[in-house]
Please model this.
Amino acid sequence: MQPTTSPEDRSRAAVAPPGAMPGLGKLSLGMGDRFGRQAAAQLEACLKAAELGVEVIPVWNKSNREHGIVASEPSAVRSAADAAIRQSRWRLPYHVDADHITLSTVDRFIDACDFYTIDVAEAIGRPVPAPELDAFLSDHLELDGCLSIPGLEQPLEMSRDLAGEAAARYLSAVREAGRIYRRIAVRRNGRPFITEVSMDETSEPQTAPQLLVILAALASEGIPAQTIAPKFTGRFNKGVDYVGDIARFEREFHDDVAVVAFAARRYGLPPGLKLSVHSGSDKFSIYPAIRRALRAFDAGVHLKTAGTTWLEELIGLAEAGGKGLEIAKEIYAEAWLHREEWCAPYAAVIDIDPARLPSPARVRQFTSGEYAAALRHDQSNPAFNPHLRQLLHVGYKAAAKMGVRYLDALDRSKETVSRNVTRNLFERHIRPLFL
Ligand SMILES: [Zn+2]
Model:
């Protein structure tokens, strides 16, 4: 006779299909490597953490948009990651993330990736048929009334109206995530993968009650999400620090961590379910808040850093001097020339004052040290220029246009470039957050 199972066990079975990936690990770091040359230097940062006894799982992420701009294929990210791992002493898991994919862009990532960031921000707010909404609310009567959630000082104030509003706003997005998840599952044909659901590229941050409703809906949809990327309060501009109310961020992040832990148990989502912070890189001022919340709950996190490595390449080229410095200056001049066009798609995530951008003529006179100081994200250095940094962050098109000339420059300046790439990830991200 079959042993009887609790409803929780059954829903766990529902969201842990065959081929589900074992856990992502408690701490993981998403790293972007736009030109495919820095995987070994990036991995070195995780190796250094491992030597100090902290496992930080490396995940190489690249979005469809980046592949388009750089004219690369997902298989190149896989090859670079595999090669770096093979030549290293890394023996823990690692992953390649199809970052921000949708139903129309996922197919090219199927063979190369084992981590999928399912982006459903576009579907937020799409109307939900009333019967579907009613069915969801009837299935989730626990969302009607105050919920006591471990770690929260006050019970989470839920009600049928509040849950209904959140479901009306997010249910379509969850359904879309289901369609994408199932397409990946079918096409992966039993090969395991990690599922992330992202709703960060939208205008309104999600509250903790909304996050709970989203997680309940993901479980109902049968999506074994291992990470969820909500939009947090404040501005997460590309390559520069957080702009916003840090105390408020800390309260909300703390509540989100509590809700994620609760939802994983309550709805039978994967036990390692954790938040994914799409940081846009370098949100140093909120790292202490994130660290405190993780400690308070003994929770994990996935931190996506994206473009910070590309900027370290430029710093390394500048520090190499000679041709490397010349190329770094040429890239700035090109980005400056195209500043309006190239910044437009990133308008929501950059704040550049054009008057604070040095002219290409001025930059042409920079020494190695001056270029590095203007670009390196050291807010205590008066020479640091966040406007120049943000412009270069979105200016990787200039390097893409250079093609092999840029790649050759990286190879020639490998020593200074690698050093900056590793040091940045280890000292500025891994150490303050995880060590
Ligand atoms: Zn994102």
Q: What stands out?
A: Residues 160-188 form the longest helix (29 residues).
